[in-house]
Amino acid sequence: MTPSAPVQAPAELSDHLRSNLRSQAIDEHGFELNLSPWNSRIGHLPGAPIRGTNDDTERGIISRGSLFAMADAACKDESNDAAYALLWHTLAWGSGTNHRNTPQRVASVTQDVEGIGGALRRAAIASRKDPEAAFRTFQPFEPLIKSLGPNFFTKYLYFAGAGNPEHRCLIVDKRVLATLSRYTAEPLTPRNGSGYGYNTYSNAIELMAHWADQFSTAERRIGFDEVERWAFKVG
Description:
By secondary structure, this protein is mainly alpha-helical. Helices cover about 55% and strands about 5% of the residues.
């Protein structure tokens, strides 16, 4: 977003940033999950199984930090297995116990394993230099993966940045948009359903990056994702 009058960051965001170290708010942000249902569904697909930080495939913790550690391989592995691994772990992290769309997503992947795998790796690479290309890889016209809209695929694009605090592909879901919309003249919330296009994504990213810049100092550079984390919590 390049507003004619820059939007001042809310005071409550400042309070959040002062009271939360990046290592705690971002790297350690995770969940202990039952991984068995996931692995029973995706065991036949590339990138399986999903493993927690304890290397367990039954139950384990998946954190932002553990997902960041998978990002470079997702960009470099030409077999696309690592990109699939990042996708499955990201979906587990983001879905928790809610498997409402999991069967449709898995079924969609099985229809074109090779083609979708290549697109996943291209999207991971593009996320580091071209947010629009990354976004449109997942949503050119029809979704790349059925039932996987921007609320979720932006999580994959975010983790592909490997924890770079200035990575411009951020998680933008309905809760983040709801928070940001309270501080903009033109609300960012989608008018129809939960889907949205690249312009909404770009505007949300620019606003969060702008706010991060407002609070950054020589002593501490605020990560763009630290603003996203706050926006999700209050959304």
